[in-house]
Amino acid sequence: MIDPTQVIEAFGKKTSSLLVPTHTHSPSPTALPTVIPNVPIYEKVGETGTKTLWVVFVLMFISTLAFYYLAFRVPVQKRLFHVITALITTFASISYFAMATGDGNSFAHIVVKEAHKHTPDTVEHIFRQVFWARYVDWALTTPLLLLDLAFLAGMNGANITVTIVADLIMVLLGLFAAFGRTDGQKWGYYTIACIAYLVIVYQLVVPGRRAVAAKSNSTAKLFASIGGFTLILWTLYPVVWGIGDGARKWSVDAEIIAYAVLDVLAKPVFGFWLLFAHAKNASAIDGFWAHGLNNEGSLRVGDDDE
């Protein structure tokens, strides 16, 4: 008698080779080139940059106190340069305090595209920290610096107005360029800002020198020296911008250090130089500056005493 289990086992042995798929060699698919998405790059301030901001804040604050102290030591008729210079470092102190405490900044989004022959194009997203508080500072302090030079030279109102407007255009376009998303935007704003700076240079060199020629020899020499000093420093600002925010060849910390050196030279050093050098030749300004509005409400600036 045949055991049924033996039949099932025999049948299973004969058919297993037919039911179970056998391994066959087939060519493996070739690996397709893949593109790994780039991780966003953040370029921001480090420990060195933060310490630099604090140091400059302290220097600006101490200079501000010194300028106000010097202002109260002279009659109100001779405080014009003292007040303007003190306001310059006051705004700079506020700006550097904001930047040192982590305020007054934002990230500019920069997109860098790279084309490849055999793989898809890659896109790199870079976020660079831009301290917009610095541009607010410049928009307030650089017109005051120009007023110092303009009043020293005795420039007329028309030339002063053109100089200040060109300065504001220069600073605002620098801010727009810092946040430009494309190279066309960035360098386009930068170029127009440089043209505005050339207008400032022309106003100080040509009408400024013409106006100061009517003053004393010592005042003319002071204007030539301190004006030339200012123009040299101001020429370095767009150079730093082009290397830093523009081409991104410098880190944010290196950019902060470069601007810090220029700001200290252009503001406190400029202010002390101007006040001490011009102290002996400072002329009194009467009228509205010293006495305000008269009873009739008319504005009298520099009227001759009768």
Automatic annotation (TrEMBL):
Subcellular location, record wording: Membrane
Major site of localization recorded for this protein: membrane
UniProt entry keywords in alphabetical sequence: Chromophore, Membrane, Photoreceptor protein, Receptor, Retinal protein, Sensory transduction, Transmembrane, Transmembrane helix
Domain of life: Eukaryota
PROSITE patterns xrefs: BACTERIAL_OPSIN_1, BACTERIAL_OPSIN_RET
Transmembrane segments: 52-71, 80-99, 135-153, 160-181, 187-206, 222-244, 256-276
Keyword Transmembrane: yes
Single GO MF descriptor: photoreceptor activity
GO term, biological process aspect, one: phototransduction
InterPro entries listed in its UniProt record: Arc/bac/fun_rhodopsins, Rhodopsin_retinal_BS
Membrane-protein topology: Multi-pass membrane protein
GO cellular component terms, semicolon-separated: endoplasmic reticulum; plasma membrane
One Pfam family named in its UniProt record: Bac_rhodopsin
PANTHER family (UniProt xref): BACTERIORHODOPSIN _OPSIN, NOPA (EUROFUNG), PTHR28286
Family: Belongs to the archaeal/bacterial/fungal opsin family.
Name of the protein: Opsin-1
The species this protein was found in: Cadophora malorum
